[in-house]
Amino acid sequence: MARKSKLPEGHEHLEPYWHPETFPKAKDRPIAHEFDCETQTESMRPFTDLEYADLLHRQALAEAADAAPKIHPLVAQVATMTDADKAALKEALS
Amino acid sequence: MPTTFPVSSATFIDTAYLNAYGARLLGKADNISAAATSIVQIPQTYKHLMVAWKAKGTNVAAASDRIAMRLPSTSNIYVNQDVHGVGATTTAEEGGSATQPDFSGIVGLCAGASGTGANNFSVGQIWFPNYTDAGLTALYQHWLAISGGSWNSSTGAIHAGIYNGQYYTATPGGLASIQFQPYSGTTLANFSWRLYGMG
C-alpha cells in the first residue's frame, strides 16, 4: 500500500478527507482550468490531491446543510434578542 | 499624482503612469466549463485587485447555486457574510469558522441545472483592496463582492447581493492565486473572468 502523503500545512480541516491513496487516478478526477498570470498561458489539468480533498469537504458541508433542520428567520432573530427585548416583544404581542 | 497627462511619442499613455495609477489586465478566460477555474502567479506589485466575472450556471440539481471562491495559495478564508435577495426574499448568511476555515467563500449566485433559462446569466465583481499591504507579519484581510443576475426570465428568478469575506495571509502579499468553483454542483458552465491590478 502506498504511503499516505502529508497534509499541507494550513489545511488541517481537511484531515478527515485526506486519504490520497484512495483518491481516483488523475485521469478520473474532475478537470480544472488554470490561467498563469506570469506566462499568460491557459491549461486544463486534473484536480490535485488537495483540491480533491477540498471537494469531498464541500460535498460533506452541502449534505450537512441539507440535513440540518431549517429554522425560520424570525425564530433565529428572537434567539439572539436580549431579555429586555424579548420582554418588550412579549408585551407587544399580548 | 501628476497634474499633466504624460504622453510619449511611442504610446498614447505613458507606461509608468499606467503602472502607477491605471488598471492593468493581468489575466482572462472566456466561457470556461470545468470543475474549477484558477488564476495563479498573481503579481504582488499592485495595491488592489479586481475580478469581473460572468457565469451561465452549474450542474447542481436545483434552480440555483452559489459561486464559491478559494484562495489556495498561502491564504486561508476564515469567514464570509452576505446579504442577498432572490425575487422578493432577502436572506443574510454567514459561513466558515475561525477555527475551521472552509476555504470556500461565497461571491455570488448563479443558475442551477433546473433553473437555467436561455440567454440568462449572472455577473459579479470581487475587490481585494490593499491586498499587498506590508508592515505586519500576518494580516486578516477582506474581500468585497457584488453579484446579480437571473437564472430564467420568471418572477422570483432574479437576484442581487453583496458579499464580504475575511481571509488570512501568513505574510503580506500572500494572495497569489484565486480559484472559482461551483459550491454545490461539480461543473461550472460558461464562466468568464477578467483580473485587473490597480494602483
Summarize the structure.
The complex is a heterodimer of chains A (94) and B (199). Chain A has 94 residues and is of the alpha+beta class. Chain A has helices spanning 49-67, 73-79, 83-93; strands spanning 31-36, 41-46.
List the topology elements.
The complex is a heterodimer of chains A (about 90) and B (about 200).
Chain A: E1 31-36, E2 41-46, H1 49-67, H2 73-79, H3 83-93
Antiparallel strand pairs in A: 1-2
Chain B: H1 15-21, E1 23-34, E2 36-40, E3 48-55, E4 57-58, E5 64-70, E6 75-86, E7 89-96, E8 105-111, E9 122-128, E10 139-150, E11 158-169, E12 178-182, E13 188-198
Please explain how this structure is put together.
The complex is a heterodimer of chains A (94) and B (199). Chain A is of the alpha+beta class and 94 residues long. In chain A, 39% of the residues lie in helices and 13% in strands. Chain B is mainly beta and 199 residues long. Helix content of chain B is 4%, strand content 54%. Chain B has one helix and 13 strands, in the order αβββββββββββββ. In chain B, the strands form two sheets. In chain B, strands 1, 3, 4, 6, 7, 9, 10, 11 and 13 form a nine-stranded antiparallel beta sheet that branches. The model of chain B has no long low-confidence stretch (mean pLDDT 84). Strand 1 of chain A pairs parallel with strand 2 (36-40) of chain B, so a sheet runs across the interface.
